[in-house]
Amino acid sequence: MEILKRSSEVWLRELLSNLDTFWETVESDISKNDDGASYLIGLQRCIFNFLSTALTGANPSVSPDIAENGWKMLDKWLAIQVIPTTKIGILQPFEEIFLHSWAYPFFLVAGDYQKLYNFISENAGDVIRLGDEEYGLTRDETVHNLIFVLGFNAYGGFSVFLPSLIGRIAGDTSGLQERLRTEVRKVCGSGSVLNFRTVNEMELVKSVVYETLRLNPPVPLQYARARGDFKISSHDAVYEVKKGELLCGYQPLVMRDANIFEDPEEFKPDRFVGQTGSKLLNYLFWSNGPQTGTPSESNKQCAAKDMVTITAALIIANLFLRYDKITGDAGSIKTVVKAT
Question: What are the TM regions of this chain, as residue ranges (predicted)?
Answer without folding.
Answer: none
